[in-house]
Specification:
The chain is 13% helix and 22% strand. The protein is of the alpha+beta class. The protein has a single domain, classed as Oxidoreductase, molybdopterin-binding domain (Sulfite Oxidase, Chain A, domain 2). The strands form three sheets. Strands 3, 6, 7, 10, 11, 12, 14 and 15 form an eight-stranded mixed beta sheet that branches.
Amino acid sequence: MSRWKSDVGSSEITPESLYVSRRKFIGGAAAIGVTALAGWKGLEMLSPEESVSAGAKLNFAKGPFSTDEKQTPLKDVTSYNNFYEFSTDKYGPAELAGNFQPRPWTLTLDGDVKKPKTLDLDAVMKLAPLEERIYRLRCVEGWSMVIPWVGYPLNALLKQVEPLGKAKYVEFTTVLRPEQMPGQKRDVLVWPYKEGLRLDEAMHPLTIMAVGLYGEVLPNQNGAPMRLVVPWKYGFKSAKSIVRIRFTDKQPATAWNLAAPNEYGFYSNVNPEVDHPRWSQARERRLGEFLKRKTLMFNGYGEQVASMYAGIDLRKNY
């Protein structure tokens, strides 16, 4: 079992220098162009020339549950990322994701299901109409963003395989490609990265499979070609570049719980009343702002999700 490494912790704390970006967004378009947009336009595959342009647009409708808060600038969302498969440094993924290939891609759904499937990316894209969901998102270290994701409810995908009655949890496994993802050559986490949700959390309409942001294909450093977005658990439950979804009757072991069980429990809700051992969860700093604001229970989505945790001690089940 890989354990927490002391050299990771120092990069987790958002420095004041973030707000005067030390790399000035790495040359602007380079970080969201050549490094990122190999993908699709709507449901059509882009040509090689189009795949490195900023014009790789997705077809979508406005979805429900969106906040009207000010959106975080695209350059911040695509240059400051948690993606340990590339780097433990927040600026590292945008610099190191250029060689990652999000096509061809397949997704396997199996485990306690009636109809296991392996789908290629085009088939996954056609399962449900794409929607834009503008979510407020708070990361564990205390910084937050507002991001317009493009995707569809995860339940539209999960229903395709007809989970069996004994299925209680969903395990997500991400791609293992150390030749393209240099962070996987280090043992800071157990690879491949795995995440897990209770089945009701995975089926909740707020939980989405995201394939884009700001109307465009997901950049590599943001989890291309598909990633999990759970807005009341963001930063804790954010599996990227997913290749397998497995249904199980047992609570799955997750990467962060294996690495630091005293810091990351299975539930991992955004909860201002339960501090992370190294950070307070009570306040947050919106990326690009100087002053902190109060963190909202369940990241402000309590009206939609609190009932799932009725009777559960969320201090114990952190």
